[in-house]
Request: fold
Amino acid sequence: MKKLLKLIGLLIIIVLAVLIVNTLRLSSKQVTANTLESIELPNDVYQNLSKAIQYPTISFSEDAIPDSTAFFGFHRFLEETFPLTHEKLSLEKISDYSLLYKWQGSDTSKKPIILMSHQDVVPVDEPTLGDWEAGPFSGKITDTHIIGRGTMDDKGTLVGLMEAVEKLLEESFVPSQTIYLAFGHDEEVGGGNGAAAIAKHLKAKGVSAAMTLDEGGFIAEDIVPGVDSPVAMVNLAEKGFASFRLIVETTGGHSSQPPRENTIGMLAQAIVDLENNQRPYKLVKPVDYQLEYMGAELPFFKKMAFANPWLFKKPILEALNAHTTTAPTIINGGVKNNVIPTVAEATINFRILPGETIESTQQHIESTISDKIKVEPVGFLTNPSPVSSIDSDAFKTLEQTIRDRFPKSIVVPGLVGGGTDARYFYDISEDVFRFYPIRIGPNSMTRFHGIDEKISKDNYKEIIEFSYHLIKKFN
Ligand SMILES: [Zn+2]
Reply:
């Protein structure tokens, strides 16, 4: 008995020692911030963004034809507002509405970089109009904010990039690396005609870029529990997206004589089976980076959990949603209250973790639910993107620029659950990153695609300055 107690005591000491050593070894991954020259931005940058918001470049659905008045009006606005950019850069229109600017670099041996954004915005729900501080397409400027659909997603970034380029041209700056500005027009409906076509066009021209930068990463404030510093999330990959329709077909019948297996009951059981058999949480790349970079900044005991995923990974991975998610989104079946329907259908949406595929997701569904139910893929489907590197010069330049411009922020590479246009660019670009310094907090997160979308004046200037310094640093 004494021996056993001794053994247990020894084990506890070993475990504690491992926990503490790992915790102490997890040191900050943040690079030292340098001071940046400050730049003067005129206040009419607010006016310019306000005007951009007033073109309702809405993407309604995949098959809807873009509103040419809004899009061409927006293009004219860009030409008039950024004359130097239109004089010195070449411009190609892809699929009529997407814009591809090329700023020729002086050193053709260097690989180009691609800075992305998108012109289109999501519609505004009519019943919510009254909850906006100002009309979503009025471009109202208040003492502190510019209000409107697109200020955060994604015209703030697009027009911010244009401001930075125009300013650099005013200063007679010539990049050594060629810079492409790629602005799709249908990101909100999958990007099939916009960003995908731009990437295809660049591939046909033999373009091979060092880096592509797009939306999909932010500066998160007061969102990560335990982290007081703002977190600059640079997303290296995005999850896949796939929906599957479950179809139950039976002979139906009269509701007074219900069969043991009712159409709707079978469908309901399948949904419950899928929800009860979630895909496992996994510590895959780039989630492991997230743990290292974030963990190092946490107070001791939280840091201990992040430094020892072998023991504590479950709650952390759950908090990070690091698995393929399962979400029933549509259900249909039945016509009359005394008729057992012959068909019932449900659509389940999955966001697929890197390492898994559309195919493995379908296999998971088929092995989880009754084989009497038909399973078919539906709508837009895409596998998880590859994971970009954090060892490349491109990442290091991006990381350094973020730290220099936002020295109070910590940079954390990670994975984004939603889809972006960036996924089309892995084919023509060594690295693909998602980050622009839009600040989001617990209250502003819902403004994306939601009510009262707006950006603060200060934050908008930060986006312009960041873009300016990033282009300079790359060159
Ligand atoms: Zn967007």
Remarks:
- Residues 44-218+418-474 form a domain with the Aminopeptidase fold (CATH 3.40.630.10).
- The two ends are 70 Å apart (CA to CA).
- The pocket of zinc ion is lined by residues 118, 153-154, 187, 215 (CB under 6 Å).
- The mean pLDDT is 95.
